[in-house]
Design brief:
Layout (H helix, E strand, L loop, with lengths): L1 E3 L1 H21 L8 H18 L2 H11 L4 E3 L3 H18 L14 H11 L4 H49 L8 H52 L4 H8 L5 H15 L1
Helix pairs in contact: 1-7, 2-6, 2-7, 3-6, 4-7, 4-8, 5-6, 5-7, 6-7
Length: about 260
């Protein structure tokens, strides 16, 4: 199940709000708005990103980048409970009985693993196929992160280019000293835009993608371990204890407490 990532939006909105508030308290906020600077910083850096990647990579990377705002909810505790039930069912009724559980999760990775298990494919083959899919997923996720980090490197650089352009235009008007101060202010705005774009949006988004990738890989590694173990006929209780290793100590304690409360 996918969910919106509120922390990302809250962070961006809060960061922008803090900066805008500071600018308003410091004086005229309109001094920090300059359309040519926006075009140079955002348009120029985006053009550099387009040059750095081909069309297929750009399309795939931007699709991956959507995970910053909309991501899948990997509930490890729920996954453990599901595979515990599947292990019990497999021991009672056999692996073929799990065919009805293929659609239990709306996740192609899970469905592929259960389908191969029902087809009595060897655990080593199942692990090999699913790990190959994880490797491809890792490549796609790393591409999305690399695009954002490349953009984050280019944005301040184009900010500096805009500053140089502004300085050149300012120096061309040295005969009028009254224009030096405003000209210098405009020249520095592009550097300001580049720093904000890189450090408030692009780098944090790349970091969030890395975190999402780690969460997804942990969940898929758990699935592989569970599916191959069930295929091997593992005891459900042992499987549950084995899968608890994928949880943090705090999450394990919370799960144990919840189980004890249910039994009471």
């Amino acid at each position: 199940m996918q969910r919106s990532d509120r922390t990302t939006m809250v962070g961006i909105v809060a960061g922008v709000a803090v900066i805008v508030t500071a600018l308003m308290l410091g004086g005229n906020i309109l001094l920090f708005w300059n359309i040519p600077s926006v075009l140079i910083t955002i348009g120029g850096s985006l053009a550099g990103v387009t040059i750095s990647f081909d069309i297929a990579q750009l399309r795939g990377a931007f699709q991956v980048a959507r995970q910053v705002l909309l991501t899948k909810n990997w509930d490890i505790d729920n996954l453990i409970a599901i595979f515990y039930e599947l292990a019990r069912k497999a021991r009672r009724e056999g692996l073929l009985a799990l065919e009805d559980d293929i659609g239990r999760l709306d996740d192609p990775f899970y469905q592929k693993g259960i389908r191969m298990m029902v087809d009595a494919i060897e655990p080593e083959v199942i692990r090999s196929v699913l790990e190959a899919e994880m490797d491809y997923t890792t490549q796609r996720h790393e591409l999305g992160q690399r695009l954002l980090r490349t953009w984050a490197e280019l944005a301040p650089a184009f900010g500096m280019i805009g500053t140089l352009i502004g300085l050149i235009q300012m120096l061309a008007q040295l005969e009028d000293p009254s224009k030096l101060g405003p000209g210098m202010a405009v020249a520095l705005i592009t550097t300001f835009y580049g720093a904000i774009l890189a450090n408030l949006i692009l780098i944090p988004m790349a970091n969030k993608l890395a975190l999402r990738h780690e969460e997804e890989m942990a969940a898929k590694e758990l699935m592989i371990e569970a599916i191959t173990s069930i295929q091997s006929g593992i005891n459900p209780r042992i499987l549950e204890d084995k899968l608890r290793a994928f949880q943090s100590p705090a999450a394990r304690l919370a799960s144990a407490t919840a189980q004890q409360e249910r039994r009471e």
